[in-house]
Structure formats: C-alpha cells, structure tokens
C-alpha cells in the first residue's frame, strides 16, 4: 500500500510539474483516485477484468475527463486521471506478480 501511495504521488507530481509548472498542487486526491481504481483489482483471476473495475474506471475517469474538458474550476483533473491510471497499472502489475508466484 505504501508503495502505491508513494509511486502515485511521485508520478502525478512530476507529470503535473512538467506540464503545469506554475500551478501548485494541494492534497492527495491523485492518491485517492489510485486507491479507488486499485480496489476492484485486488481479487481478480488470471485473464479477467472485473466488471466493477470497468464501471469504476468509466464513472470516475470519465467524469474527470469531462470536467477537465468542459468545466473550469481549480481542480487538477490531470492529477486525478493520472492517479487512476497509476493505481490501475500497479494493481494489474502486482496481481500478475502474485499469480506468477503460485
């Protein structure tokens, strides 16, 4: 869990700094999105993608994509989207490693 939190914070912070260097970040919402997309992946079987993961990804990431394109507010939608992608990627990678051990 600590690895996911640190990895997500580093990736989202670094990408945000590269693309938006004059905008400051506050909070851990990218990490929250990583954990939201990580949770449906924790108990999948080999070669399957859970329906709950697809629904969560479409609802949360789709909502952030919509807000990023059409809503002007002071929310870093890029960080939310990247956090979700990092969480999902780490979840699938860790799950694959777990399956290869057995």
UniProtKB/TrEMBL annotation:
InterPro entries referenced in this protein's UniProt entry, alphabetically: Peptidase_S54_rhomboid_dom, Rhomboid-like_sf
GO cellular component, one term: membrane
Protein name, per record: Rhomboid family intramembrane serine protease
Leader peptide range in chain numbering: none
All residue ranges annotated as the Peptidase S54 rhomboid domain in the record: 2-94
Topology term for the membrane: Multi-pass membrane protein
Subcellular location: Membrane
TM segment ranges: 14-37, 49-66, 78-95
One Gene Ontology molecular-function label: serine-type endopeptidase activity
Main location: membrane
Keywords: Hydrolase, Membrane, Protease, Transmembrane, Transmembrane helix
Gene Ontology BP terms: proteolysis
């Amino acid at each position: 869990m600590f690895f996911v939190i640190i990895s997500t914070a580093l990736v989202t912070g670094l990408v945000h700094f590269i693309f938006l260097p004059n905008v400051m970040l506050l909070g851990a919402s990218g990490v929250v999105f990583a954990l939201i997309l990580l949770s449906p992946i924790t108990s999948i079987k080999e070669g399957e993608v859970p329906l709950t993961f697809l629904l969560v990804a479409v609802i949360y990431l789709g909502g952030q994509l919509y807000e990023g394109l059409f809503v002007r507010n002071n929310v870093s939608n890029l960080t939310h989207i990247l956090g979700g992608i990092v969480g999902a990627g780490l979840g699938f990678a860790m799950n694959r490693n777990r399956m290869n051990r057995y």
